[in-house]
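for ur thesis appendix - Carbamoyl phosphate synthase large subunit. copy paste whatever u need, i formatted it the way the template wanted (i think)
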Amino acid sequence: MNILLTSVGRRSYLVDYFKEAVGTTGKVFSANSEKLTSGMAVADKSFVVSRVDSSNYISDLLKICHENEVKLVVSLFDIDLPYLAKEKARFKSSGIELVVSDPWVVDIANDKWETYKFFREKKFNVPATFLTIDDALASLESNQISFPLIIKPRWGMGSISLFKADDIDELQFFYNYSIKKIQESYLSILSSAELNRSVVIQECIHGDEYGLDVFNDLKGNYLITVPKKKIAMRAGETDIAMAVKDDSLLKLGEEISKCFKHPGNIDVDVFKGRDGKQYVLEVNARFGGGYPFSHSFGVNMVQSIVDEVNGLPPSVQSPLTNKVALKSINVLLANDS
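the 3d part is after this line
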């Protein structure tokens, strides 16, 4: 079976995981709008495609699939998820398994304002979140929240335009500066329609941060949650993590799975506050930057997906616990072609 990973970027480790999963029975291809990325370098073959917001993007991907007998497509980037989710039927009609959540799930995950509203309505604990400075100031004046506050893109990822404000002057500066930086980055692809409402202001939760990988089978049935305590962060992604066994986090993951019924993996950021509550911060409807830790702890969701597409039952092992894993930096030679 041949596999295509879209918007692969720097996630060369996921290319390697899928290559290990298919072994000698298939190839793993990468697609990206830029050639010089590590994820393109390690693939069996790489394809430079249009930007995700191009009218040709989906056609480019389908052409690659048809010409290379691809049976499984997995996206590694938040920004192409909405485009893929709307075209799932086109891939299915060609006999291609596209691992992407339903459009409404992708919209909630990509939009931090919608994430906040969704989990609040479902009675999960969430940090107070605001779309305007005036609303945040009103809550400050009524002592419902206090500084510091977090300013970040409504449609964003990693640490791009993420700031902490310790007073009103910083709040106003970082709010406006964040909008400016969004305009100058690829985040503008999803933010352009509501640029003046493209930043959220969020209560800062003090406590320990965890990442959850919530795994379902390809039909959306719950399999397992892997909780990891974040020990160190770099550029908005987990750099060092420890596998933990925490019944409350396992229960939280299962509850989120039942809400979304997503295929494959979603990545959830959670804070355990000093008040003892668990707060849901963000969701990525894809393999997130924390997945390599789950993989290192013995939970091979990549293999489970490949097996399921091949007609085998999905299966994942329970993770190791009380183990620590660290990300490393590798240097690769770019492909000549």
